[in-house]
Amino acid sequence: MNNSRASERYAKSLLTLSIDENLLSDVKSDIDMLMQIFSKSREISNLYVNPIIPIYHKVEISKQLFENKINKLTLNLLLNVIYRKRDSLIESICLKFIELYNLYKNIVESNITTTIKLDVITLDYIKSFAEKVSNKKVSLIENIDENIIGGFNLKIGDKMYDCTVSNKINELKKQLINN
Amino acid sequence: MSDIRPDEVSAIIRNQLSNFKTESQLEEVGTILQVGDGVARIYGLSNAQAGELLEFDNGIKGLVLNLEEDNVGAVLMGHSRDIKEGDTVKRSGKIASIQVGEGVCGRVLDTLGNPIDGKGEIKGKVYTMPLERKAPGVIYRQPVTEPLQTGIKAIDSMIPIGRGQRELIIGDRQTGKTAVAIDTILNQKEFYDKGEPVYCIYVAIGQKASTVAQVASIFEKNGALAYTTIISAPSSIPAPMQFFAPFTGAAIGEYFRDTGRPALVIFDDLSKQAVAYREVSLLLRRPPGREAYPGDVFYLHSRLLERSAKIINDDKLASQMNDLPDSLKKVVRGGGSLTALPIIETQEGDVSAYIPTNVISITDGQIFLESNLFNSGIRPAINVGISVSRVGGQAQIKPMKKIAGSLKLDQAAFKELEAFSKFGSDLDAVTQLIINRGKINQEILKQAQYSPLRVEEQCAVIYSSTNGFFDGVDITKVSSLEEEFLQYINSKCKKVLDELSNGILNDKNLKVIEDAAKKIAANYK
Q1: Mind listing the domains of chain A with CATH numbers?
Q2: HSE-up (13 A, CA, CB side) for residue A45
């Protein structure tokens, strides 16, 4: 996160350019794909982080991998950051892009954490509740975590309802220690 | 420790469990990106305010200091041991504040206002006072007119301090800076006994915990703890807690000030606070300036010291004071004051370093303590020539003003001639007189620790000495002469002393003192 400012500048320029050229949804799907590739293949994410690999190799590999598969804008950005030796930022640029995209589209990310898998009706209900709270469109991500013991934790952007058993136990512990 | 009864314990726990809330509220949270060195960077918390209190998972408090483009910089008010990357942080919605009430007197508190002396919670009604608060505006103030008696002859006569003043105590290590401050607190016992106490707050920043305990025991032994609060921020606690400690002291002082009573706060010492602030600032990556202090270190001290003030003696106007905390609004009274005695430690007498010059320019005067004076036996080691009080003169009681009016100039003339006289032995009678009287005055101005004098006693002693009634006395016997003289006038001339303390100075009273002084001095020639 040390260079988050630089990443934000790159992400912002990509976003505004894609809006101007009416390619926003294409670019977004490119970025999603890139993120997926980075998380799946360690080789590719290492390729960009590694400063020893010469620039022309990186460019060649990127072209072979992505040419005709992703949008021209996205590819240009990728090549640009490689030429400018900022390619180690590529992942954080993608993250920033998604953040800015959400802001632009008035979308807020929401996380629901439970111990068991929720059914569709409950998820729909949670989504509409989150939309009501935040006044924004909600993209809901479902997590399952046994460590919370029970209950649920709903996070909407930087707001949170923590109704987990583990949190309540923690609160009780603090209260007993403080008195 | 008293016996623990199991049934009582289970009753308490039962009570706590039954009060435990099970529903959840919407909370604003952030995620820790980075934590270390007592500083955390937090993502999220988009609505956090600067100076807001945060709560970490393990109950440790934090304070927002930096608001940046995409993260929030916060300092931890505790150890960062159990905090890790990815933890959630909650907003509290409150800016940093402490609970103050009458119960703080006689207690030892930490920076967040929690008692650390093992005497239980603060008793009585408490009010929430913010740590950072704007100083009262011009229309809510009044010139300094009442004296704050330190009980130290050299200070009360030549460098008088008024209630609402800020007087810096500056000097090298081991020159008796803390001793001056402690004596001042001890001297307020007189007013406490009279039923009009000056509430004292002693803020110990970056000191040894053992020193703080020692100070507390001195207060207790001398009966001064009843009107004194100690804020302890020893060097073992994290830097943010150290640099906030003076603000805690000021917040407590403000409680007394705004409820119409005089208060005295001692910051011991601000150079260590500046060092703690520098540490935090550098960790928060604020750009360093001179001596690596951040650019706003002047503002740090000026906003703190500006809070000491003499409030206008008008309840209605005082109740409209700016930035009053809501909880305090109903009990505001006019006429209160907050006097500040900041302490600065210099290195090798270098007053032109960054922090000393800053604080000298902020305060209304300074008391210089010098190690060579201290070592030559002049204690308190006050260098009268360069010590000043810019507003205290108006606050002196009339007899003291009149009696000690020429003392400072006399002593300056004596110092000059004394240096000069070292070259030759043949001196004319006038010079001889000035030197001899100067030496006696110098002896008279010496004072042992923990032995403050009442202002009327000081008047009598200084009057006798400056008018030459002690002339010709053996220099080594001056202190015992003074002691006997004080005993004599305390037993025989009680009425004269009472009148002096009420500001009455007439020839008849002066004659009584003169006679007494000459009579006692005759035994010491």
Answers
A1: 2-103 (1.10.520.20), 107-178 (no CATH)
A2: 13
